[in-house]
Amino acid sequence: VLVITAEGLVFYVSSTIQDYLGFHQSDIIHQSVFELIHTEDRAEFRRQLHWALNPTSDPESAETGLTLPIAHYSPEQLPPENSPFLERNFVCRLRCLLDNSSGFLAMNFQGRLKFLYEQNMKGKDGSCVPPQLALFAIATPLQPPSILEIRTKNFIFRTKHKLDFTPMGCDAKGKIVLGYTEAELCMRGSGYQFIHAADMMYCAENHVRMM
């Protein structure tokens, strides 16, 4: 979930950006969205941020693509917030730090331009600028997750242990994945007998670190 101001600043992004792009939420908020966008897609993203899909082009900023000169509008100059002209649905490529991508991930942005209140912006003459339109959108990857990723997610389960790692409980998913009943899991003493010998030291190290 993203909110991008008319200038191209990230006003808000949900923490799930880390799952898709590898960036931490706090690294992105209040930064230029154009730093994330593929250079070939910046002009299109800039166009989509403008209420009439026709931003004024400044040759210098168009070259860098990272700052957007902004014309401030009074609300009377803009279409009403529920206007279909303000709906947006487009695709652009974003930088991705995760290993399973080629450095960029194509994402579909779906949402609309809405007024962003409480920005308390000041004009060049020091007067208060009325609320401006910002892009409120949900971004989803064009490529669905691979079968392997879906299967891995389906194998996630939770167990409950004493501090010495003795199992005390296991959720229903764990019983299906492991094949033990809860009684079998919890009556065998140390949880280490369920761990492969090659992983024993790794597990013990994390066990101590956790305590």
From TrEMBL:
GO cellular component assignments: aryl hydrocarbon receptor complex; nucleus
Main location: nucleus
Keyword match DNA-binding: yes
Keyword annotations: DNA-binding, Nucleus, Receptor, Transcription, Transcription regulation
Subcellular location: Nucleus
InterPro entries cross-referenced by the UniProt entry: AHR/AHRR (IPR039091), PAS (IPR000014), PAS-like_dom_sf (IPR035965), PAS_fold (IPR013767)
SUPFAM superfamilies membership: PYP-like sensor domain (PAS domain)
Superkingdom as given in the UniProt entry: Eukaryota
Keyword DNA-binding: yes
Transmembrane segments: none
Domain PAS: 1-56
GO BP terms: xenobiotic metabolic process
GO MF term (any one): transcription cis-regulatory region binding
PANTHER family (alphabetical): ARYL HYDROCARBON RECEPTOR, SPINELESS, ISOFORM C
Protein name: Aryl hydrocarbon receptor 1
Gene name of the record: AHR1
